[in-house]
Amino acid sequence: MPLRKLTKKAARRTSKSRLAQLIEQATVDCYNDSEAKTGFLTMIEENLAMPFTTTVMGAEVEVISVDQLDDDSVVAVCGRGKTRQRIPLLDLPLPSPPPAGSEWIEAYRTWSKGDW
Question: Which of 37, 45, 94, 116 is most open to solvent, judged by the fewest CB atoms within 10 Å of its CB?
């Protein structure tokens, strides 16, 4: 039986049940949103293949790392030459195909929306 070629959109999608598992794993011992965001940061740092290249506002940038701001938001540290900028992970466009471990970003976005 021939393998069905997945569309780019289908190849990126993580099932709702898998997202729920990832969310549970990141937030299992968390008592509030601040701790949950730190849990996601840890899982993303451990699982997302970095660096990777993406396009932000028409410019190609390299995602070097992830970080957490004073307001607890999780951001991607992006670089272009010597310039560095932090972009909220909720707003970061992912390349196609996305890097390994990007399902953790999807789980963080799903958790943030309360859509799980």
Answer: 116
